[in-house]
Amino acid sequence: MTDARGDLLLAGAFAALLLAVATVGPTVVDARPAYEIPVERGTEAEGFGSATADPWTEVPAATVSLSAAGASVPAADDVTVEETKLQAVRTDRRLYLRLSWADATVDRSTNATRAFADAVAVQVPANASARPPIAMGSAGNPVNVWYWSADDTTEELLAGGPGSTTRFDPGTVTTDATRADGRWHVVLSRPLDAPNANRTAIPDDADMDVALAVWNGSNAERSGKKSVSEWHYLALGPGPQGPPYQTILWIVAGLAIVGSALVTIEGVRRTRGE
Prior knowledge:
Elements: H1 2-31, E1 36-37, E2 39-41, E3 62-65, E4 67-68, E5 83-90, E6 94-102, E7 119-125, E8 143-149, E9 153-159, E10 166-167, E11 174-180, E12 183-191, E13 208-215, E14 227-228, E15 232-234, H2 245-273
Parallel strand pairs: 1-15, 2-5
Antiparallel strand pairs: 3-5, 4-14, 5-6, 6-12, 7-8, 7-13, 8-9, 9-10, 11-12, 13-14, 13-15
Helix pairs in contact: 1-2
């Protein structure tokens, strides 16, 4: 009877291990891609610089969650844009990023008193191999910011921490925007090469971090009152690159499974020894 009981316990242990693998495995596999922005290869002739270009319909879109930036400005947590779609295309010459988000109103002018324009920004590390602090980088680890506003403003900025932005002059970022079905669609693009040390050199053999910000003008969003994302990464490398979240989580899950198996086997052995 003791051997039969032990066999049942051992069989149960293996069933539990199989269940753990079936449950944990898919979650682990999905962990890293959750922050990955796929990057398609394209050509200049396809016209990705236009927000309405037909080839954009074939480019996969990643959903990027947004939340309040937590800045120390009045009503900083009162923001309205909760997510944006991000598409990315790399040609031999440029990187194109297309952002799309829902906005019930069109806010273009900043001429009236307390009027603010809708806007969007993309943040990338000045040094693509190092991840800066997400709040506009730091003095020793700055970021580049590509900014578009519905009042027809396009800026390329360097930031070394909150409130430290300076404008690249001349700028190399170009933008195009359209509005359809209650959504903004904005393309920001920049040449791959960096003409000076402070501009990001966009790699073709490694991933690159990217973060987003969106302002809703009708909600008096401006400056630090904005919706922002966490760091994500553009999959620019030839294969799986970037933070090895998937590998790390598989190792942790594997160790947990092995540990569970050892404890169970030891329990079976003690039961058989009774």
